[in-house]
Amino acid sequence: MYPEELVMPMKAELTDKGFQDLTTPEEVANAIKKEGTTLLMINSVCGCAAGAARPGVIFSLTGDKKPDQLTTVFAGFDKDAVAEARKFLAPFPPSSPCVALFKDGELVHMLERHHIEGNPAGAIAANLQAAYDEYC
Fold first, then answer.
1. What protein family is recorded (predicted)?
2. Is residue 98 annotated as part of the catalytic site, yes or no?
3. Which of 34, 38, 62, 115 has its CA 20 to 30 A from that of 68?
4. pLDDT tens readout for residues 16-74
C-alpha cells in the first residue's frame, strides 16, 4: 500500500475537477449501479497515470457531452474499493490505470493500461470523447 502523503495529491488532481473519491466497496457498487452514465478511473502512482491518464481524462470533459457521474478509486491505496470496481470490469483483467464508462450499470467502454501507456493525453481524451458522444 502506498503512503497517504504520496497518494493524496494524485487523488486531488481528479477530485479537484469534480470526481467523487470512492473508498469503500459499497460506494463503488452504488456509484456504478446508478442510472445514467458513470466514468470510473482506477488511478495509480505510475508515470502513465500522471503523464497521460489523469490529464487525458480531465481534458476529455471539455466537450459538449460528459458522463453524469465522475468517480475514481486508487490502486495500491483503496484496496477494497479497487477490488469491488474490478468485479464490474470483467472480462477485462486487472489494470491500473484504467478508465471505464458505464451506462445504467453496464460497462460500455474500457481503456486498459495498454491503451494508455505510450499515448498522449490528447489521444486518451479523444477516445473518451468518442465514447461520450455514443453513450452520454
1. Belongs to the bacilliredoxin family.
2. no
3. 115
4. 999 999 999 999 999 999 999 999 999 999 999 999 999 999 999 999 999 999 999 99
